[in-house]
Amino acid sequence: MDERSRQRQFEEQFLRQLQSRAKAVLRRGIPADRFELETVPDGIDAVRATLTRLGRPERDLLETLPGTRAQQFRFKRRVFGPFYATVARVRAQVLAPIEILLAGDTPGPIGREQVLDALAHYALLPQRERPTGVVFASATGFTAEARALVHRGEQPALVLLGGRADGGWDIELSDAVRRGGWAKLFELESQDEQLKRVLHHLEQNAAQLESRGVSVAELAEALGLPAGRTEALVRQACRHDSRLLTVVHEGTIHICRSPLAQEGDTMSVWSRIRKLLRMKPTAAERVRELTAQRVKLEQDRHELDQRLGALEKDERETVEQGAAAKTDVEKKQLAGKLVRTRRELRRVQAQATVLTQQIDIIGTHIHHQTLAEQGKRVALPKAEELTKEAAEAEQVIAELAANADLAASIEVGAQTPLMAEEEAAILEEFKQAASQRTTAAEPTKAAPERAAAKEPPAAAPADKSKARPEMT
Length: 472
Hints:
Largest sheet: 6 strands, mixed
Number of strands: 9
Radius of gyration: 44 Å
Distance between the termini: 106 Å
Oligomer: single chain
Structural class: alpha+beta
Strand order of the largest sheet: 1-2-3-4-5-6
């Protein structure tokens, strides 16, 4: 799919989701009872003007470009009986980099100038037709300068929605829009779609997920969602996949994955009773506890690895500075610094070694318990049963083969002797007809040859020069 088709698909998706969201939040999320959808020429006029400026006003080209569609949502609220009053006029449009698309280059985020040009169009409209809110969307997002226009506090209120590579949305709203209750209108992504994005990001970081875990803060930054919303999605993901669990380490929530899935509800009443009675935990519970311990150790080792990296960098820089030093005083100072750095480096390396050994031990224990529990969960037959069933199967195959051979040897045909004689007579008749056809074809083929052989040779033409005129 080329970039034009992708952006046209994005435009269709944006307008469809915004319309569905407007229906969903009526009387619940926004102060309106109904809305009327109108098609406005803002988009197609802007794209046509750009093509005219570039000297390419082809109609066929206009139909292949994104940004030609624009809609106005006229939100109304009941005031008395069948009468409604308009509370907001919101125009929605996709901004596309037309010049870059025509050149075939890779487009970047929409800049401040293009947003201002689109807003300038509404200043030319009559006062009663001017929108109270404008929503601009872009498949490639917006620059920081363009997003800053949202918070300038001018009318109409501006909302920017940038598409993300993972299918989400980067929403830029002003505080006035949030206070007015209209923020829910622009939450185009459903909870299920957000959960899918969470699971997708976790799968993309599978190695980190199964070692030191992924913190909620890192996941929220990758998703472009608030930390509170991300934490709720993480809890939902843990209920969706029983192998996922959360670990709190130094006040930070990390999500990790256990190699063994928990059977049944991890927070069931029976599980709580078992913990209160201090009964022996199940294999899955032991594996989850060991996984939580390993995640905490992995986090500690990750912090030590960062310290090791910084100390090793200081060591390299100090050695380079010492090699480039020109005076003995400078070399002595650098030598003392290098001694301290290497001493601290050995200590941190020793701590990292201890943590690595502990992680290896716990990882081996988790591996063995996982293998043992997986072997128990699948009921396999014993050796005696396998041998007995193999002997029975072999006997059945032998009897079946013997019966098949016997059936082939004693098969009785349905043809009678009289039918066989009649078929033989018909075959003989076929042979006679074929021989007669061959004999009839041979004289026809030989006739032209015999005629050519009997024809006398043509007489030579007389020499007219030697002929004399006849005397009268």
